[in-house]
Amino acid sequence: MPQPLPQKLRSPELDQLSSMLNQNGNAWTAEFQGLTLKTALQPIYSISHKRIVGYEALIRAFDTTETQILPVDLFKLPSSDFENLLLDRLCRYLHIRNYGSIKDELNWLFLNVSPKVATAGNPSDAFFDQLLKKTGLPPHRIVMEIVEQPTDDADRLRETVAYYRELGCLTAIDDFGAGHSNFERIWNLSPDIVKLDRTLLTRATEDPKARQILNGIVSLLHQSACLVLLEGVETRSQAMIAIDAGVDFVQGFYFRRPTTELGRMDTSPADFGQLLDDYKRRNKVTFDPKQQVVKFFEHFFLRAVDRMWGGASMAEACVDLLNQPTVSRCYLVDASGIQIDETLVSHAGSRSLDPRFRPLEDSSNADWYRQQYLRQALAQPETLQVTAPYLCVTGAYMCVTLSLAFYQNSQLRVLCCDILSSPLSHGVSTD
Description:
Elements: H1 14-18, E1 21-24, E2 27-32, E3 35-46, E4 51-62, E5 68-69, H2 71-74, H3 81-99, E6 108-113, H4 115-120, H5 127-135, E7 142-147, H6 154-167, E8 170-176, H7 183-189, E9 193-196, H8 198-206, H9 208-223, E10 227-230, H10 236-245, E11 249-250, H11 272-309, H12 314-317, H13 319-322, E12 327-334, E13 339-345, H14 347-352, H15 372-379, E14 385-386, E15 390-392, E16 397-408, E17 411-420
Parallel strand pairs: 4-6, 6-7, 7-8, 8-9, 9-10, 10-11
Antiparallel strand pairs: 1-2, 2-3, 3-4, 3-11, 4-5, 12-13, 12-17, 14-16, 15-16, 16-17
Helix pairs in contact: 3-5, 8-9, 8-10
């Protein structure tokens, strides 16, 4: 744990910070340990609104020869908690001053603060409140980003986030999905926005399974009442992945690079209209096969039901279904979700069985009521249902399930059929 700072060093005052700032026209710079600090802004876009909704403020440092110093090297310069706090607050002061110079009275300003600085300072010293009042920037236009990394004092971090929220600012977790990420911090801090680390996007670009995981993370964050921002979008393919994942906001070189030339910053809309048109076209291609599957298999299902009505056994009724090359297995379920008798496995299904998952193969008397395909079939008897691809628990392979509810001897039954599916054949195209 860091040692408490002396009270007189705990809070760099606005007057002290003001003396480190210089104004040249509408632009502001700051001096820190012989370096000149400048603000760079990078636009953040809402996909649905198709326009800029905010800017992330980034620090740029230059030495006396105008050579740029990497930000990571800049933040290695402080040698004490006081200097860490001083640099952090100086950067935020500089960013807010510069943000006030651009002609934007609506959108958010995203400001970074690390957990180390957030837990070293005392949130009750009201520094940030005083800064906003001095500069006139309304707190509701600020998004405070907490970098996703370990901190020694989770309680103090929670107090700091609560302090910004009480001021009227929004809060965000940055770099979620990197090495130290976990949902525990999401639940503890309840951020308004979560910024996904670019490594998630990089992996999703290369691996369809990672793309499905990205979509699932976005869904979980939305269920946690968080808006989601995907950063590091550098190509058109990655922009399409972001759209398909359902994120709310995007940021990256594909749309706009950060710039210190704030007076000449390009604020024109990105071409979301074309991106979304392409997504709609590809989305139709993605979902049309499901309807083709329904049309192709419907008469096989109806034939199987007719045969069971006529007294045929399950195996006799489903022989045509099981002869289809993509069909893995068929099984019958009652109205309470309990499987009746054993599963009928096709020749194709037998070939796909993995002996490592043999304990899962016998599903007689299994309860499938939790499965959406079963509840949908029960809710709409005599209408064939089809799922999106999912991982089948009986063999740990990807499949889609067709299900049809029908009455047999006044009792509701559901005929189910699993079809082998490859994850490579599903999801948005990125070509």
